[in-house]
Design goal:
Layout: H1 2-28, H2 43-51, H3 55-66, E1 69-74, E2 77-82, H4 85-92, E3 99-101, H5 105-111, H6 121-135, H7 137-140, H8 144-158, E4 164-166, H9 167-184, H10 190-206, H11 217-244, H12 253-259, H13 271-302, H14 304-319, H15 329-333, H16 336-348, E5 354-359, E6 363-365, E7 368-370, E8 375-379, H17 380-384, H18 425-442, E9 443-447, E10 454-456, E11 460-462, E12 467-472
Parallel strand pairs: 2-8
Antiparallel strand pairs: 1-2, 3-5, 4-12, 5-8, 6-7, 9-12, 10-11
Helix pairs in contact: 2-3, 5-11, 8-9, 8-18, 9-13, 10-11, 11-12, 11-13, 13-14, 13-16, 13-18, 14-16
The structure holds protoporphyrin IX containing FE.
GO molecular function, one term: iron ion binding
Main location: membrane
Subcellular location: Membrane
């Protein structure tokens, strides 16, 4: 006992000195910049820039001042902002051992801790593989017709017979209905209607301050999340019965997930995992795609040459099909120019501004140390607007993507990269192309106001939601 006591008396100062030494070394090698006022740091400046659509400029100024890595404090946490090809490589090539994914506290409390964005390592891979089994191109092929029907019905209900529409809210309605149909297998009706209301509350709360007080956005969001979980659990038990009675496992994402079995012939995902990931898919897939389609509609109104090229491509496809036939996977594969326009929108106005990771150990980058426990913030537009990678970056030019292999790795990242690259890429591509096909072949439109500005909330939203005047084309 005495020896242990003496030993600890001797060792304690050594450990203490080692900790002090490490701290001093760390302080010397911290990235440049300042953590600002305690707790607030640079959060207000950042949020203000997002609202005013000057966030790209805000970060570009920091980058000019400090270089590829700098420290700041965002949302009460010490943060390192990194950018450029090498920074993207550091984030996207990580196997998860040195950094973990990091979401807002509100998101974690609304969704729960079993969703893909909260999982890491083997658990992340298992759940991702299950979701990918439905979201990969090969599986999605059979759902093109179903998606087509949702789009036609949407245009009939919300566009035909109208002279003026506001694009963004309508595109949100459309992408919500597509997800409900293909992923949840929930038909139009009371259940779908209540889901849409609850999801709107959820979306409003994901970016709110996580203090659960009555009448706050966060409080409404938590209540909505509980309701959605109840509805989804009910849906899962109905689908289990359908599957037991011999229904196909390819009806929708939920039946697909219920049917995947592990080695012990048990369901591979727990009920909580299915519920939370279905909710995550809605959050990840609904706003992003609607924003992309909205900005394509804007560029088609602003640029007659791009409109003409998209229209020619889509008319060719229409002419090659018997009248009224649903779109097929092969038709989407022919929409190469239209997708290049979409890629250029994703470069210039990426729906996802950037993302957070958390350092799980001290990480060395560009001669500096990112200390264990700090947030890492990667920003999409810093490489998308770099003129050494994309010459004349502010010019809208879909031709940049004629040979995508010429773009250096880790430089075009609207869908992220590596182990966490967006699993909804093919789904987003499919709904964007099919929607643009019907819009350009059925309508012409012009903008009601010449204001091309947008704000980030945090996704980019055109001012006033993009009101347009529409004229239906003659049906041939
Ligand atoms: C234009 C449309 C979309 C864009 C720009 C987009 C972008 C992104 C980005 C940047 C990430 C983060 C990657 C990272 O942290 O490294 C992500 C993740 C994710 N996205 Fe998308 N997304 C889109 C559509 C969709 C759709 C349609 C779905 C579902 C059907 C979806 C589901 C997800 C999921 C589940 C994750 C989390 C992946 C993980 O943590 O492993 N996204 N997306």
């Amino acid at each position: 006992m005495n020896i242990l006591f003496l030993l600890s008396l001797f060792l304690f100062p050594i450990f203490y000195l080692l900790i002090i030494r490490r701290r001093r070394l760390l302080l010397k090698r911290l990235p440049p910049g300042s953590l600002g006022i305690p707790v607030i740091g640079q959060s207000l400046g950042f949020l203000w820039a997002m609202r005013a659509n000057t966030a790209e400029k805000w970060f570009a100024e920091r980058a000019k001042r400090y270089g590829p890595i700098s420290k700041m404090s965002l949302f009460g946490k010490p943060t390192v902002f990194i950018h450029g090809q090498a920074a993207n490589k550091l984030v996207f090539s990580s196997d998860g051992s040195n950094m973990s994914n990091h979401q807002t506290e509100s998101m974690k409390r609304i969704l729960g801790d079993r969703s893909l964005v909260e999982l890491s390592g083997e658990e992340h891979m298992r759940v991702r593989k299950a979701l990918a089994s439905f979201l990969k191109a090969d599986s999605l092929k059979i759902y093109v017709g179903k998606m087509d029907e949702e789009i036609r019905l949407h245009l009939l209900m919300h566009w035909q017979g109208k002279q003026k529409v506001t694009v963004l809210p309508l595109m949100k309605t459309l992408t919500f209905n597509i997800i409900c149909s293909l992923l949840f297998g929930v038909e139009r009706g009371a259940r779908r209607d209540s889901l849409i209301q609850y999801f709107q509350h959820i979306m409003a709360g994901v970016w709110s301050f996580p203090v659960n007080l009555p009448f706050t956005r966060f409080n409404r969001s938590l209540k909505a999340s509980a309701e959605i979980q109840r509805i989804l659990k009910q849906l899962i038990s109905e689908k289990r019965i359908e599957l037991e009675n011999g229904a196909s496992s390819h009806q929708d994402l939920i039946t697909c997930l219920l049917s995947i079995r592990g080695e012990d012939d048990q369901e591979l995902m727990s009920e909580d995992e299915i519920v939370q990931n279905v909710m995550l898919i809605m959050i990840g897939g609904y706003d992003t795609s609607s924003v992309l389609i909205t900005f394509i509609i804007q560029i088609l109104a602003n640029d007659p040459n791009i409109h003409a090229a998209v229209l020619t491509e889509q008319e060719e496809i229409k002419k090659s099909k018997p009248s009224g036939e649903l779109l097929k996977w092969e038709d989407l594969a022919k929409m190469k120019y239209t997708w290049r326009v979409a890629m250029e929108i994703l470069r210039t106005i990426p729906p996802t501004f950037g993302g957070f990771r958390k350092a799980l150990e001290d990480i060395e980058f560009e001669g500096y140390i990112i200390p264990k426990g700090w947030q890492i913030f990667w920003v999409t537009s810093m490489t998308h607007l770099d003129d050494t990678i994309f010459p004349e970056p502010s010019k809208f030019d879909p031709a940049r993507f004629e040979s995508p292999e010429s773009i250096p790795p880790y430089c075009y990242i609207p869908f992220g990269g590596g182990a966490r690259i967006c699993p909804g890429y093919e789904f987003a591509k499919m709904e964007t192309l099919a929607t643009i096909h019907y819009l350009v072949t059925q309508f012409t439109w012009q903008l009601c106001c010449k204001d091309n500005g947008y704000q980030r909330h945090p996704l980019p939203e055109p001012n006033q939601g993009l009101p347009i005047e529409i004229i239906p084309k003659e049906v041939v």
